[in-house]
Design brief:
Length: 542
């Protein structure tokens, strides 16, 4: 033919070795395949698809619909794929390939009953946590990027922890495990603690025993059997010249130190273990916390109707060459009869008691938690308290009272935060004596409104008795209580902390108001007392 047909000419054109028509077919087919493939992938990213099998619908979905990711004030809902499937195509494709293994386990019925699912839950959760950690919580940050947050709009504890995370390279999943499904991250904590204990045991077994060092009575240079000093007396103090510190004592319920150290109980466990003080996260919200517990909404098995949630406390401090002076002021409250106490009063002889602990720097968690380090789950009226009949004659503590009192963890041969039964695991007396001599205790003083001043310490148990090194006085003035204290700076007997000008000390305060006893008190978070030194409470020199 003289002229070739258009079709013949076009068919001779080659694109990468294929005719133009073949290339067109490949191109169109590619579009169809790509579109179909992406449509199929997106179809598997819906909530409906995820809960199509009963394993998901009957287990994790039922947990998820009770969380803030399902219903919240913004109206934005994060579904399964938002948290578990990457947005970008490459990582999404990889995740879909990984999901084929999950389809296999669905076919095999690996988790097709609630019992089977719970049996695998920790293993499944660890896999997700590890993935999120490796991706810097990529899916979380689609909604929760640090640079999108306004710290001024966050609560004190959230602001503190987000600041820490940015400074230390932390990521969302470090702190936010268990927020969408049944929490099991306490098992991870237990696993890590067990590994640490095993490593420590191996290290101790490999080390050769060193000779025991001679103990020096750093906190109490005077011999216990020496001549008693006369009762402490002080000078008149012009309190108008002392700085005032305002804090809020709150009702703590049954939140023992073991509770603080357990992630499923306390969201700040990780931060606390890393060294953060309770004060840094909670100092501005103690009244709110107290309200939750006094009402029985959290960590309180026996709420007292009408008991106040918090008590504002004003503190002033001063010192001279010999003594520490302190002044406390707090409002009196209305009487709320206790249903389980005779006459509605636990301690009918004392409407009010005020106590103060001082840490000399040797009790591990005191500087971060204040008195919490001595408050335990197995103490009186606490969740794992032993029955009086079970106390017997436990070695190292006086059980005549019929209950376990405060103690510091260092006084025990074990400190188990799971079973929480450490009360009778007391170290040998020789070790306790050495701890008392080197300052591993909490200095404790207390005032009773019937006019009694007591001094003592907390080590294997709480020791309180009348003494000459502290003197309290107080009275109700109108609708408030005013209590003053004078205490020797220099320790004169075991169980007292030497107070040195220029130094700071961790302190904690407790008020038993309305004739209360035991754990039914109001307490402060950890505070620092500085004698012309750093601290929330600054003692001025007279």
């Amino acid at each position: 033919m003289a002229t070739e047909s258009l079709f013949s000419k076009l068919s001779k054109i080659k694109i990468l070795g294929a005719s133009i028509f073949g290339a067109a077919v490949i191109f169109v087919g590619g579009i169809v395949f790509w579109g179909g493939f992406n449509t199929a992938m997106e179809a598997t990213n819906t909530l409906g698809f995820c809960i199509n099998c009963h394993e998901m619908k009957d287990n994790v979905y039922q947990e998820y619909i009770k969380t803030i990711h399902y219903t919240n004030r913004s109206g934005v809902r994060a579904t399964c794929s938002d948290c578990h499937v990457p947005k970008d195509w490459v990582h999404k494709f990889i995740r879909k390939i990984q999901a084929s293994g999950e389809v296999f386990h669905w076919l095999m019925g690996t988790v097709d009953t609630p019992e089977k699912f719970d049996g695998k839950r920790y293993q499944l959760a660890k896999r997700v946590w590890e993935t999120m950690k490796s991706t810097d919580s990529r899916e979380c940050r689609n909604c929760h990027a640090f640079d999108q947050m306004n710290p001024d709009m966050q609560k004190q504890r959230a602001r503190k922890q987000h600041t820490n995370a940015q400074a230390e390279g932390g990521t969302c999943i470090d702190c936010h495990k268990g927020i969408a499904h049944k929490p099991v991250h306490h098992l991870l904590e237990q696993e890590e603690e067990q590994k640490a204990k095993e490593a420590e045991a191996k290290k101790a077994a490999a080390a050769k025993p060193a000779p025991a060092p001679a103990t020096a009575a750093a906190s109490a240079p005077a011999a216990a059997g020496g001549a008693a000093l006369p009762p402490v007396t002080g000078k008149a103090v012009d309190w108008s010249k002392a700085a005032e510190t305002k804090t809020v004592l709150f009702y703590p319920g049954q939140t023992a130190i073991e509770w603080v150290l357990t992630g499923t109980d306390h969201g700040g466990t990780r931060a606390f273990k890393k060294g953060d003080r309770c004060f840094e996260c909670h100092s501005n919200e103690t009244a709110e916390m107290g309200a939750k517990m006094v009402s029985g909404a959290k960590a309180e098995a026996t709420p007292i109707p009408g008991k106040r949630a918090a008590i504002p406390l004003s503190v002033k401090a001063a010192y001279d060459a010999d003594n520490l002076y302190m002044r406390f002021e707090f409002p009196a409250g209305a009487h709320a009869p206790v249903p389980f106490a005779p006459g509605g009063k636990m301690d009918a002889d004392n409407e009010v008691k005020l106590a103060m602990i001082i840490d000399g720097g040797k009790v591990d968690m005191a500087a971060r938690s204040g008195c919490w380090t001595s408050c335990h789950s197995d103490a009186r009226d606490m969740p794992t308290a032993p029955a009086a009949s079970a106390l017997g004659t436990a070695r190292g503590i006086d059980t005549k009272l019929g209950y376990v009192t405060k103690y510091v963890p260092e006084s025990r041969t074990q400190f188990d935060t799971v079973k929480r039964d450490n009360w009778d695991k007391v170290k040998p007396q020789a070790e306790l004596d050495a701890m008392l001599a080197n300052g591993t205790f909490l200095d404790l003083t207390r005032w009773k409104s019937q006019g009694v001043s007591e001094q003592g310490y907390i080590l294997a148990e709480r020791i309180l008795k009348a003494g000459n090194d502290v003197s309290y006085s107080g009275k109700k003035e109108g609708d408030k209580w005013v209590v003053t204290m004078v205490r020797r700076l220099k320790a004169t007997q075991p169980g007292e902390v030497n107070l040195v000008p220029g130094q700071s000390y961790a302190v904690g305060f407790a008020v038993h108001d309305d004739f209360s006893t035991g754990r039914f008190h109001h307490v402060s978070v950890d505070l620092k007392l500085g004698l012309d030194a750093e601290g929330e409470i600054k003692a001025v020199k007279l």
